[in-house]
Amino acid sequence: MNYQDVDGDPGRNKNRVKLLIPLCVIMIVSVLVTVLVLWLTLGTGSSGSLQATVMSRCETYLKDQGAAMSQISCEKIWESFKQAFVGKDPCDVPPESYDPLMRMTFQVTTCDRTLFWSQTKDMVHNFTAKRSCYSTLEDTLIGFILDGLTWCGRKNSQEVLTEGCPGWTDCVNNPVRSFWNRASAAFAGCAHGKVSVMLSGSTPTAFNPNSIFGSVEVKHFNSTIMSDLKVLLVTTESDTKTCESDASLKDLQKALDPKIKYQCEIVPQTNIQNCIAQPQIACGDCW
Questions:
Q1: C-alpha torsion 127→133→136→139, nearest 10
Q2: Is 96 helix (H, G, I), strand (E, B) or coil?
Q3: What are the φ/ψ torsions at residue 148 (nearest 5 degrees)?
Q4: How far is it, in rounded angstroms, from Cα 56 to Cα 72?
Q5: How far is residue 11 CA from its own chain's centroid?
Q6: What predicted TM-score, i.e. pTM, was given to this entire model?
Q7: CA 287, chain centre distance (Å)
Q8: Whole-number Å distance between alpha carbons of 76 and 22
Q9: Which of 83, 101, 111, 225 has the CA that lies 20 to 30 A from 193?
Q10: Could you tell me the CA-to-CA distances from 204 to 90, 96, 233, 245 in Å, in that order?
Q11: Average of pLDDT values for 92-116?
């Protein structure tokens, strides 16, 4: 087929082809530019998606709290959060980098209502999601915002990354680990009155000295405001462990300030599950 077969004017069709070639080039360039922009913003970890998540969680939390926290700005929290790690080597972000963020989001916990956990995260959070009688770190503003997220920066760069970041054990001062160490220390230091911790009776050692609870929180308990620590040792029907038989719990007692009274109670896992499923059960009857 030649140009004349399509249209009676060969020259006219040749001009059309000449016009189509630059248009195709423009379209290809546009597509490449779009792909490059998406790669830069998403391919290496999207600061936009992380910011959107942080802002959304922050606004949701503040809305639930009402006037009690109306003075807090989610935009300022985001900026303070970024300043802790942006532009830094992702293995050189010490816990104190988050001090300004901790001061900005400080919350006073209710006396006798603080609940810590170790190796029981899902159960504890399922419980506190249904009950307001106890609060964990993840139930505070900053804990709620950053729970389960990953982030880091790059030295001499303003990028906020969510991929390619060091894992928890890759280096001590990585941004995520340093944040949780700092937030946990602050949360533990403010715990007052009678405090509880939910530990697992299904693991080889109920108290792990290398966990955040063992290595950070226990060391930051303040005996001038905290009177008691009660271990809630959660067990299943097949568990034989008791408060007296677990040697690791003796290590916990030794790690505590002598001024803090230690208690331990076996709590069947079914009790917790029933309290989650039946909110009408009083908190005091859950264990």
A1: 90
A2: helix
A3: 80, 0
A4: 14
A5: 67
A6: 0.82
A7: 27
A8: 48
A9: 101
A10: 33, 33, 13, 12
A11: 95
